[in-house]
UniProtKB/TrEMBL annotation, chain A:
Molecular function GO terms recorded: transmembrane transporter activity
Pfam families given in the database record: DctM (PF06808)
Annotated TM spans: 6-39, 59-83, 103-122, 143-167, 173-199, 215-241, 247-264, 276-300, 320-349, 361-389, 401-425
Domain TRAP C4-dicarboxylate transport system permease DctM subunit: 10-421
Keywords: Cell inner membrane, Cell membrane, Membrane, Transmembrane, Transmembrane helix
Cellular localisation: Cell inner membrane
GO cellular component, one term: plasma membrane
Membrane topology field: Multi-pass membrane protein
Identification of the protein by name: TRAP transporter large permease
Entry coiled-coil feature ranges: none
Gene source species: Oceanobacillus profundus
TrEMBL record, chain C:
Transmembrane portions of the chain: 12-32, 52-74, 94-115, 127-145
Record bears the keyword Membrane: yes
The protein's name in its UniProt record: TRAP transporter small permease
Statement: the UniProt record of this protein carries the keyword Cell membrane: yes
Coiled-coil zones: none
Keywords of this entry: Cell inner membrane, Cell membrane, Membrane, Transmembrane, Transmembrane helix, Transport
Amino acid sequence: MMAIAGTILFISFILLLLVGAPIAIAIILSSVITFFTVLPFDVALMTSAQRMITGIDNFTMLAIPLFVLAGIIMNNGGIAFRLVNFAKVLVGKLPGSLAHTNAVGNMLFGSIAGSSVAAAAAMGRIMGPMQEKQGYKKTYSAAVNIASAPTGLIIPPSSVVIVYSLVSGGTSVAALFMAGYIPGILWGIAVMIVAYFMAKKENYPVSTLPSIKDILYIIGSAIPSLFLIVIVIGGIVAGIFTATEGAAVAVLYSTILAIIYKGLKWRDIPAILKETIEITGMILFLITSSALFSLVMSYLGLPEAISNALLSITENQIGILLIMILILLLVGTFMDITPAVLIFTPIFLPVAETFGMDPVHFGMILCFALCIGNMTPPVGSALFVGASVANVRIEQVIGTLIPYFVAVIIVLLLVTFIPQLSLFLPNLFNL
Amino acid sequence: GCQGDSDQTKAIELKLAHNLPLEHPVHLSLAEFARLVEEKSSEEIKVKIYPNAQLGSEREVIELTQTGAVDLAKVSASQLEGFESDYSIFSLPYIFEDYETYEKVMNNEKVTDKLYNQTEDIGFIALTYYNAGQRHLYTKDREVHDVNDMRGLKVRVQPSQTSVQMINAFGGIPTAMDYGEVYTAIQSGVIDAAENNETALVGNNHGEVAKYFMYTGHQIVPDMFIMNATKFNQLSDDHQQVIKEAAQESTLYHEDVWAKTIEEQTEIAKDEMGVNFIEVDKTPFIDAVQPLHEQFAKDEKTKEIYQLIQEAKQDE
Amino acid sequence: MNKAKKWVDKLLLSLSSLLIIAMVVLSIWQVVARYVLSIPSPATEEITRFMLIWFGLLAASYVFGAKKHIAILFFREKFAAKTQISIERITDTLVILVASILMVYGGIKVVMLTIAQTAPATGISMAFVYMSLPLSGLFIIFYTIHGMLTNKIKENQEVGV
Ligand code: NA
Ligand code: NA
């Protein structure tokens, strides 16, 4: 019976995805249909309806819309531009320097905003025209932007990581945030290494550094933006406030900064709120529908069954990790990160825990693997936005993306098999 | 293992949900309940346990039990407050002066008849209770011997008005925060104290940051074992009897398991974490919360159960 | 119909905007309350959580109107335009089914069940919280029917976070 119900769950889900139903609707409908096979009609409906409410009844969850709002305010408030100038000073002497500036800009912007879409859009808009002027190929610039945009999902703050924290049964958000720094920065460095060799091959120019006086000015004007990281992440890590409160502080701080920079005016506010509502309405609906999907899976005992099946293939820890990574990479190619984290954490985390893996480390592997899907077809947020702001078609840029894809997968393997890359910082801060 | 047991399709399967890990004493007692039910019913009833909050938080699981998606659940009496105001009596500090009084009341039929069946019209009944310990105060670095020592102490409270009023009555400063944040909050000094039973020291590692544990015993809140009412009423008289007996026997079984757990954890906290355990005179604490007692004795929603408990204390 | 949509858009945007601003203020208030004023606020947290539920569902309904819920259109776009419209109609019908049977019908049943149930810190009836589901279900039905009548192919985004 359970096996039949489980089959119904997955087949109806995939069919609904294929016909182009909104992903959240596909998740809800397949869950409810499955519930009908094991519960009376009204009980199935009431149970599902309840879970759609309780699925977002969580104070930590509020951090997600608030970080999105903070990111959008920064995007409107002239902060992105100051970060780009700062990045230029850092990496301006490398071949293909503007590409490196783009990558570092994505890491910096992502480290305060936490959305690959926002980062890819902001950086692509600023960097694209500059690179074109210096004779960079459009596909080259677009690929660097797309490949480095998802770093903001790993480098804190990150809504993906908050979702993992919730679904994994309360793994510390502070620990997960600290865990993200090294893997996220390594991702960025991997992208820069590939960009370096490609730029050398194409003989792209090295930028001239601005004068010392200008450098000091650039650093000075980036400091208030960078200080946000210290306040928000520092406050969360030190236990001064919770992730949610930290996100609210980020909103307040970025608003003040945007007003000082004169980038933010009263009349901009409705548009900022509208953008926030559109993004978070979509994410929260996905989250709550995935909560329902997870309930159906637990009810059928599927996570346990899948774990047992995995463990029956091989008892070898490396083997199981590789299988899980492969599945996550595949899922990430076509599925959005949030529902994927919600659906796969309860399935894979217990397996990882059977061989004593730290949930913080495993969370990093899971989020990292799924975030790679952000830059791949058929569905990839960074890919779509990055290609669209660069005015290239997706098919054109895919070829250029392949070496980046390989480089990032190598980083994923390092993160998987060297736990210290994730755990060193959380341990250092006693989290 | 979903196929191939066709000879057992006649067996009734009951789904039991709780939010604790497999090694927790409550899980052991629930597993004992399951074993007893299967044995006593000659395998006519089977119990499938969903541990670890697999089906959701306690609040969600109560709702699942109301609708019948879940048949049985273990939930804290404090979670039931929102569903039936009688259960809020357990939040009232020192409604039981000590553990003996608590046991006496919880085994008084007049009390349990009212409490256990009260919720039938909202979809569930209670079968029995499980001992979930006494709540005590623990601090980072301050000894508390008397209620006066609590003046100005920032104490994390559970999200309920009664708990806030209790800490106020003691002279402390109640602070609301999620239970998961208590460790860091004590460590960084955001709060000075929290309150819970002994298992918080080891189970949640609070003993690493809180070094004084005062036996204030201000609240004794049981876990309740609830069942979907329709499901229970559909069972034959024999099967109902089986469920009731198994529930009561598992409560007795749990007494032992729980006592042993507390003893072990206290030892670990003392020896490995260096926590100091301090006996306190409860009288000034009890005096401090008398206004709260008057409030509960007067309130329409709680006066009946309050009176019933006071009478049960006098019963022989 | 278009006028009605504009009106609903405005309503949902205003309500969601008010809610998110209130949640920012309350979250900051919580920090201030803890450090500066030493006032406990279990009620603040509970109210904020309930606001998040209302915000999430109202915003999600708005997104149905704005057609910004992510979907995988990669496969659908392989078909001829006519077939695409038929598929589009099928998915619209599915959305209406989910919204009416689960969100409205199931939601109302849950509201009835939870009328007497109260939240621990504020004592608010949980029915008030659960009301958000049938209500947002109605908005989603409205938007979807509006979309079907205006007869344009839906351009769901394929973009997430
Ligand atoms: Na980030
Ligand atoms: Na992808």
